[in-house]
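Re: the 381-residue chain
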Amino acid sequence: MIALARKTLAYEWRRFVPSVFAVGFAGVLLVMQAALVLGIFSTAAIYVSATSADLWIGYPGTQSVNFGRNIGPDVEMRLRMDADIAAVEPYVWVDGDWRARSAVAQAVGGVSIYLSGISTASDAMMFDRVLAPWQRRLLREPGAVIVDRADLPTLASAEGGAAWINNHPVRIVAAVDGLRGLGGVNVIASLESAREISEQSASHGSTYLVARVRKGADVEAVGARLNRGGASFGPHEAWTAQAFAHRSQLYWMFDTGAGAGVLFMAIVVCLVGAVVTSQSLKTVVTGSAREYAVLNALGVSRGALGRVVVEQALWIGGLGLLLAALASLGLMSVARVYRVPVALNGQAMLGCAVLIAVLALLSGIGAMRGLLRADPATLLR
């Protein structure tokens, strides 16, 4: 009887095409929603993921990168005293107001930005996965800044253009990709420029310290050691880069209205996909009621017919999954061209595949109720 399911799919494929497209449509909705959720909230931790540092040290209890508070300059001394710390550098965060020097800017008005003050040393860690060495050297010019290429229209500026941040003149020396963040426009400057704009000297400390541990050292153990004692150096807390990125993403995902809205949309998409898939399979089974009635009259049990329906549902789910994968690849390519934040990892893809398979299986089981209509008496009507 199982062979019957495959042969039915092969010889009557036109009847099953709508179901395959329904599953594929549900799969595309699910995959793209997952990609958008991961893409949007991964930008909340772009400062961490674009940096090669192993440890982040900031003010105790910081919920997200953008909520950093200054830590004292003595904390850097404590890190440099640790035998497992190979390199330390400060990172200054400044909330700023951008005003461009153009007629267009007057129409746009001020733009809220996040100014990152970083080291311009050739071996610096901050944003070393986004900035090329020559771009970092450009920041040594007083007032030089780097922005994301996609944010130039928002800033009403162009590469090489001039603007003001908190009434301090700056110049865009380069535009790069991969700096777009959540909640504001990211602007990168040197530590010196950022401190001049914030009007705070180095004696006030920095928002964060990032550190690289010695090769072979246990990063988590070093972070835990830094969190024990050391109160005399001033309040501070150390996180591994992975933990701090995860912490920032969870904050934006679960503790903000934006995160709750996106997650709610993801649940709605799952429900819509389940309903569409289920109804499509039910239509197929209902349309085959007379054929099932014939088989039932010939002595085929309802259990065997049910297994046929379930196998058909799994085949439809597999084909729909393949269709969804191809369509999603195309859509994600288009999204990347237009710099829409999308991201997928192995766990998300596996989760989507399992969910689509479960949807198809449950829909097949639900459609089995159509077999109750497969009464041989229907042949006489």
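The beta strands are 55-58, 85-100, 111-118, 144-148, 162-165, 168-176, 185-190, 208-213, 237-240.
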